[in-house]
# Entry
Amino acid sequence: MIPDDSSRILEQLCAVIAERKQGDPECSYVASLHARGLNKILEKIGEEATETILAARDSEQSGDSAELVGEVADLWFHSLVMLAYFDLDGSAILAELARRSGLSGLEEKANRTTP
Amino acid sequence: MIPDDSSRILEQLCAVIAERKQGDPECSYVASLHARGLNKILEKIGEEATETILAARDSEQSGDSAELVGEVADLWFHSLVMLAYFDLDGSAILAELARRSGLSGLEEKANRTTP
Amino acid sequence: MIPDDSSRILEQLCAVIAERKQGDPECSYVASLHARGLNKILEKIGEEATETILAARDSEQSGDSAELVGEVADLWFHSLVMLAYFDLDGSAILAELARRSGLSGLEEKANRTTP
Amino acid sequence: MIPDDSSRILEQLCAVIAERKQGDPECSYVASLHARGLNKILEKIGEEATETILAARDSEQSGDSAELVGEVADLWFHSLVMLAYFDLDGSAILAELARRSGLSGLEEKANRTTP
# Structure
């Protein structure tokens, strides 16, 4: 279960990314990705997807999921960095997930609360 | 901002996926993916990553982000389906995102509340 | 070793692809990909790359390379279909491979014989 | 057209890769990839596939295909490095391309001349 205490992690992480995007590329990884442009961010998404796939195969053989969790976290993180490039954040994804997954109550709420 | 009302979407979606994984592959997309095995789930992650990359390039040209949001939602959804294959869910990813991103308060909370 | 008799396979395959590209999308897979546009061709490259990666992991476990050979062939085939979209063919790739790989004699020949 | 003089580039490149695979990882890129293992080689295939996709979109906008040719060459090169990991080379791919593409004469030749 996703703990109540961490339910706002995505929201806070998106706020951090939006702030760092404006920062000094010398000091911030997020700022450096944005300074290098959209293709560089998209290359990272391709890389992290490949690493997720390989880590899943490793995890199936080893029974250890720590590497896999790390790779999915990297994939989602770079997805959020890419969304920030378009001035979007994770809320749009959560609303779409609710809508597509037929979570009817959730869908209604998401539609009500996102612009 | 991620609306308060939708903050539990990920948690509820993971519960739905975990339940559907056990279901009839004829009736449930999630069950059919699990019945076809890990490679089929990983192929979907590769496909959705590529479609996300192409949608981002389209979005940059068109200024319309609806397709992009849909592709990232698909990528995250199939990530969650893959995690369910390993009996994991989104909580592990949120905890790792908090830890890696140096969200110190969040990290502390995530460490406190995840096993 | 690549047999002498098959050394012109790539050349002949590129000629076939260039011809089929102009054909009826109802009758030709190559024509149907071109009719659906560049994104559809690029999605296929992403899919075949993922399938190649998974087949390599399978091959390492099983010791059987037939599936892997088929997936790399698919990846190269769709690369050639994509090059045809830009009115290019495999000769440009072979010349670049010679140049980059420091095959000095080959590089010299490739530079001499490509326009 | 693929020039006659360059028709054996793939054969010679495969021979170079097979030889370098045995070499000093400090001196040879191919040897260093093999020393780092199959996952590292597969990560490179994923990376080069993503870069090919992005270069194709760039090329469509700019009309310049030099970057695209370089990325496809990188993708094919790393495919050959991966095949060498399994003691295979480009001949298996050419034979399969001939067989799948219904190049009947070529297929017959390829079947005749490959083991």
Observations:
- Chain B touches chain D through four residues (CB under 8 Å).
